[in-house]
Amino acid sequence: MRKGKFSRSGTLLLLLGLSLPALAAPDPSISKRPPVSPIRASKIVLVGDSTTAVQGGWGPAFCARHVSSFLACVNLARGGRSTYNYRAEGSWDIALHEMRPGPYQDVYVLVQFGHNDQPGKPGRSTDLQREFPGNLRAYVREIRAAGARPVLLTPLTRRQFSDGRLVDDLAPWAEATRRVAAELQVPLVDLHARSTAAVQGMGPVQAMRFAQARPAPQQVVAAQAGSTIGMAPVTPAAATVQANAAAEPMGTPKEAFDYTHLGTEGAGFFAAIVADELARAVPELRRNLIP
Predict the structure, then answer these.
(1) Domains present along the chain, CATH in parentheses
(2) Alpha carbon 67 to chain centroid distance?
(3) How far, CA to CA in Å, does 131 sit from each of 90, 125, 138?
(4) How far apart, in whole angstroms, are the C-alpha atoms of residue 127 and residue 90?
(5) What is the largest CA-CA distance in the chain?
């Protein structure tokens, strides 16, 4: 019995001893790891109004679909904001905090305003000749002082039509943005020019698909005749062109039909334009932008 027990124990120890070298042998895939190169990541910060913001703007689609994993994308745009009240309420302070380089190689700040700088919006409107461009200049200076890189965007067009022609009521704010970009040598994404050409080309009926909700039947009929109207009138004779510049609420998320804000299809369409224009304006970003 003792001999049998010893034999079994000895056999077990022998097997364990034979297996120890195999267990102790290093895995070549672990012991021979190549040197690791540190990643070089950058960040984009979006600053603007509802046409860039979550639920109504192109920003979410841009961040979700058009940047690589080496390009962080933070959307700080807010509905109802102008170049004045974005700063006055403290949103700009939050944006400045996001501009600190930290581990990022570069931080790019995309600034798009204009919709709420228009007249008729108490607490938001700015003077087109001096205040609006002055506010943009201040943003550019402070972005650079923070060590980040500014990019100015002209405002996204609205989609109102009159007799088959796009009502381009944001052209003066787009032109003011272009002038500031040229003056301060800031990269420019001319979203207004691209979006205006695209919407005019497709016409009032096709442009309706970019909204957050379906239009009323009366609105479709009016668009088929070449003009857009606001809330569905009781009779066709009562139809008037919708004044979106005055009708847009102060940062109130909504899922309603209008000619300014974007649903899923509209956000995707214009986000692709922003990505394309950004790659042209800032060539060093091209490798991390997805068409």
Answers:
(1) 42-160+167-202+263-288 (3.40.50.1110)
(2) 10
(3) 18, 10, 10
(4) 21
(5) 112
What gap in Å lies between CA 3 and CA 8, rounded to an integer? 9
Single-letter code of the amino acid located at 16:
L
- Tokens standing for 130? 């001096």
Q: Which two tokens stand for residue 277?
A: 């224009």
Least trusted range by pLDDT, from 32-41, 151-160, 168-177: 32-41
What pairing do the DSSP bridges indicate for beta strands 165-166 and 161-162?
antiparallel
- pLDDT tens digits, 119-139: 999 999 999 999 999 999 999
Place of tokens 């001096």: 130
Residue 231 neighbours by CB distance under 10 Å: 14
Helix (H) or strand (E) holding 48: strand 42-48
Please count the other Cβ atoms lying within 10 Å of the Cβ belonging to residue 243: 12
Total residues found in the chain within this entry: 291
Q: Structure pTM?
A: 0.84
Residue matched to tokens 């008729």: 120
Q: Are 153 and 274 in contact (CB under 8 A)?
A: yes
Q: Please, what is the average pLDDT of the chain? A: 89
User: Among candidates 269, 273, 258, which has minimal Cα distance to 50?
Assistant: 258
Query: DSSP 3-state assignment of 5?
Result: helix
- The neighbouring-strand residues paired with 109 are 45, 150
107 beta partners: 43
Q: Apex CA 113: angle with CA 111 and CA 114, to 5°? A: 155
